């Protein structure tokens, strides 16, 4: 589903994605209120959501769309932005967004972004990751890791979460821990389930907020 108040952008994105053999655009709407209604009606896998929208902005629309009863599938949200370092990046990730995409992205990048997020991965560029680190660097870091997170995870799962926050892929974590990549995937799945996380973007935030990783200044 595509959500943008600019008809040219919205319709252009919908057309480009509709040309892909593995992607179906089920709806395109122009404001946040319509987005919430359409998400419930069409149950899309991925939503491309503009941050600045009339009626309800993209952040609040994302919160409402992702606030579903336990056990019900949540869509994944990619925030559309004109500038990569948008002032609302951190707040959008907290709201549950799985990543960001520039409105000027190519058709190939647009389609690949949808596929990546639909597969359960996050879409964070290096500059967005740096912004997150800067945000946490400006805060007093906990002296010790959060007991809630540590008690919920095994020692190995805590180690994996820490490496995720360091930006390592599953393959890189497997190499670091000298285990099979499938084993790492199992650990990641359990971490997400235990901590109620949707994707790696939220895992990074959880690790920093728990004090498992201290940002370098």
Descriptive account of the structure:
The protein is of the alpha/beta class. It contains 11 helices and 5 strands. Helix 8 (155-165) packs across helix 10 and helix 8 packs across helix 11.
Helix and strand content put the structural class at alpha/beta
Number of helices: 11
> How do the SSEs run, as a string of H and E?
EHEHEHEHEHHHHHHH
Span of the ends, CA to CA: 39 Å
Oligomer designation: single chain
Strand content: 5-15%
Q: Helical percent range?
A: 40-55%
What shape does the CA trace take? globular
Strand order of the largest sheet: 2-1-3-4-5
Q: Which stretches are low in confidence, meaning pLDDT under 50 for 5 or more residues running?
A: none
What is the overall pLDDT average?
84
Task: Please tally the β strands and state the result.
Answer: 5
The major β-sheet equals:
5 strands, parallel
Gyration radius from CA atoms, angstroms: 18 Å
SSE layout and pairings?
Elements: E1 2-3, H1 7-18, E2 28-29, H2 32-42, E3 46-50, H3 58-66, E4 76-81, H4 89-95, E5 99-102, H5 107-118, H6 126-137, H7 147-152, H8 155-165, H9 170-177, H10 181-195, H11 200-210
Parallel strand pairs: 1-2, 1-3, 3-4, 4-5
Helix pairs in contact: 2-3, 8-10, 8-11, 9-10
